[in-house]
Fold each of these.
Amino acid sequence: MRPSGELSRGPDGLYPVFWRELDTLIAAVILLLAGWLAALSLGLQLDVVEMVRRAREFLGFTAPLFFVATLFLVWTAGALLLEVSGLAPATRRWGRIAGALYYVENAAPFVGLLECFISIVTALLAYSSAGATAQAQSAMIASIAVALGASAAGCFVALCANSLRTLVAGRVTDADRDAR
């Protein structure tokens, strides 16, 4: 049983906010596990170590940025799921979350594009310095694969952020707009 608000602080109280965030974290983990199980049921072999290696390989230096953005998107989806289902013990102010989603939506493609440019320049420099050898062609193709992977990841994260921001936009109140 959740504690009563006798030691509460703020408009919603300290304890209801704590439980809301804990519930949001649990909902986000459930969403991740549901996605994992759906992928396994489709026959995809998902190994965490291999996924991390591939993310570093195909996303370059942007892999940690896209990982953090994806965690934020999953957390937002969990929070939205709790709010829509009525299971949240305290209401959430969606104005700042909508602002963060807007930022992720606009920044993710540019981060992917930056990695794309860096990878293509690296590929061209490696190719020009090594000549037309098989190793140079292999390095160039690998760098172009990173460029395409980062661009695709940027677009995917931006599309997810746009979808969540659209869903959250209806929950932003006038008080949220004034607080920003």
Amino acid sequence: MPPRNDDDRERERPSWRELDARRDRSRHTREERREPRTPKARAESQAAKQSYLKKLDEKLFGGKKIGAARQADVVRDARGTRGFSAACDAYLEERGFPADADLLLLFLEHDNPDVVLKAIDALAALVPEKKVDRDALAKALRRVKSLTEDSDVEDAAEELLSTLG
């Protein structure tokens, strides 16, 4: 057996934990390209991506208005993120309240109580026309009623719930 060299002892060896981590990681992917793991991180990443694409679209196409369907997708994608109310405000500024009941239900999650009140009124107008799913509306209104701190919003939600039966 050859004599040990002191240089071998001074060399830093990876710990068992580091060895296991290397073994678990695929060698065919780059670490910097990994997707965020938590739903909140994914939502924030998606919102940042949408913001980046919107800015890029404005630069490339001179700030032309995007279509209604694309703008509705932006609102849907922003749901659950910090930029949701801003996406709703941009939609309202361009197009007003949507006629689509599913999209209109999302506006009940807006931060501004005035917007929520107007969304409740718009949904109330769709109920007689049977353009809205009554179960989804009732669920959304109960959620708004339980989470809001504004008494006017709570009263409007309760009133519409009572008309649903």
Amino acid sequence: MSSFILDDVLKSLADIQCDDPKKTLKGSGDARKCEYNCAPGCSFKSSICCPSDSFEMHGKCQCNDPSKAPNADNTKCESKCTKAGEKYTNGVCCKSYLTGKNGQCACPTTGQIDDGTKCSACPSGQNYNWITKGCDAPCTKAGTSYKVTRRGKGVCCRSGHTACETVCCPSGTDEVGTSGKCCKPGSTLDAHGNCLEPSHVPRAKRNGPAEIQLENPSTYFGLNGNANNALCPAKTAACPIEDRGDDAYECIDTASDLQSCGGCTSMGQGVDCTLISGAKWMGCVKGQCEIYSCTKGYKLIDGSCRRP
């Protein structure tokens, strides 16, 4: 009789084994049930065990508090900021007196510099460089004003001049690369350093304007922080706004914007179609400048404005 009873017990135990190897029978009596084998303080989400104060997304644990991240074995949510005196602000870990801006740590007030222990304004008379986030010497020569080149160098430009890659160029011209030579926008230099107007390939269009095919056209995303459209909507570039502070940028469709056609001109990319010599009415189509008509004294020939 006892052997029959033992068989019944073993059969009963077999019947209540958990089918899922990830589960273990827990509890006693009628309260017994199969539960996932998660560490203390964790619970099973959709497919993995995660800390109780987290959730699962795409097969990974994500802490409810954005300032925390799961530890290596997914048993606890820990602070992302591990250095003493740091705080989590706008997606980054920064010193206590700084704040997160566009994925980087910066002084909370535009125009201040970080000396390593605090934020402060530039010394009296000096100019704040919004690219290097440092201070530059004042412009002392009459008729000049402080500007920042696309490479981040502080320069003193004369009236009617604009800061380009490394130097100031007269309005309506641009520096050719970093040569220090000012020419018409899109120009190159010959072997003697003379300006060569931008080459073009006219594209015939029936009952429509001629189109200038600029050399090496491409579309840029602008600031590095926008590489995955983290700052601006898809198909737009994050272009810095000159003289507006280290966190100032605008989202531009470089495929159609007249002044940043093909890229952010504030970063030395693309072309400002409005500066094309002799052009009166123009457009930007698919990152290319198109000229529709020319000013007096010029004639539209093969897609560019030329003097007869």
Amino acid sequence: MSTNGEGALGSLTITMRLDMAAYPTHISDRTRPTGCPNSEAHALAWAFVFLGIVMLYFAYLDEFGHIGPYIARNDPKHNDSPVFGLGGMILPYSSVRHFSTWFYQLKCNLLAWEIEQSGQHPATWEKKGASLFTTLNVGKYRQVRTATNRILNKIRASGGHVFYVGLQKNRPVAEFNSQALYLTVLGEAMKRLNQYADQNDADMVIVMDEHQDREAILTRASQAMYGGPTPRRRIIEPPFQVESERYQTCQCADWLCGLIGRIGAFQARPDEWGDMDWTQTFFQDRIDAASARSSIRLQTATTEVEDVAALPEVVDAGMAQPAAEDAAAPAADPRP
């Protein structure tokens, strides 16, 4: 077998479609990729391990819930959502192009009538997740439920995970700071993504929908990457901000956030958002099975939230190592 260049990697990708029991046992759990065991992406991840190449993941993030203050669903002004967070999906780089094409085809089939009515090319036509995941749509159209489950299954089959981090908003309107809340959640998301990459002996690239506070986001991300006692060394660049209508992967992240925002609203205030109980009936278990290092913190009104240290510790869902091992300090990273 050749040991250099694309030929070696291609050969390993083909020959390593093995059952998990056949994988050698001398490779540590920390080095073992966490993708789907029988997927091509998982085989490629193992090829990277054997060749000594660092794996690369892409995290596609968007907002869920609402960034502004919340009082009640029937409040005349502050009524959008009781939660806010960032979410989407993590994919190995080798699966990105295939997944993007797959999602594009699913979107075209599911929403063919709307796309035709829009007069736009489907590659740049976008359906927002908040508009897709309504009580009416989910209850009336089985196709929406089926397509959602297919997306979750495809992410896992591609060697990836759903990812989200958020919290319930309880600060009084007069004290509310939207930018501080956003940057706090961003900092926590970067911490968890760095831990995800570290466990998989991989690097991470973050791609986000463009945001008006671009400068503040880049500053916060750079601080997290290079400063403090635990720099996020696995994140190789500050987040890239892109136009979501031109990226199928970002559109998929927006769909996931549309669903996660509904789940969070129901969990935070079931007394006000009881009509969202379909999130538990159809999707909660599937989201849990497909997600990694993800949670929405539900808290009392007296809890301070605009503080990275106040956010919850990592909640594992689908990771290879138990929580006790995950909480241990990672091995020293020689990179600057």
